[in-house]
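Checklist before submission:
- one chain only
- standard amino acids only
- sequence pasted in full

Submission:
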Amino acid sequence: MCNVGQREALTQQRVLRFFQESLGYACLDGRRGRDDNHNIEECLLTGWLQRQGHGDKLIARALRELGQAATLSGSKTLYDANHDVYRLLRYGVKVRPDAGEQNVTVWLIDWENPENNDFAVAEEVAITGRHS
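Returned file contents:
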């Protein structure tokens, strides 16, 4: 019988329990092996943005901006995508509600009230795309 990986699995379980039990994080079960894994969980983010009072049109535009920032295409490197996503997480997504209106900042993280954010942990999520 091979014991390779058993220590790692036990460590992962301890870390997951710590995040859930001590820090109150939700557990995102079932992410391993899903065909539709993405680095942005749009349904979770949409729900959080709705609870912040944003309408569907503004949310859709903010998600489109975030998705474009995270997409690797052409000469855009993984470093560039990470930088672009970080900028949106840190400084918010500037979107225009309708033509002729001023830009609105949609905050993806509530920096002023950290307890207002949703926190979750997942074990070994594989993302398939240009780079797996």
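Reviewer check: The chain has a mean pLDDT of 88.
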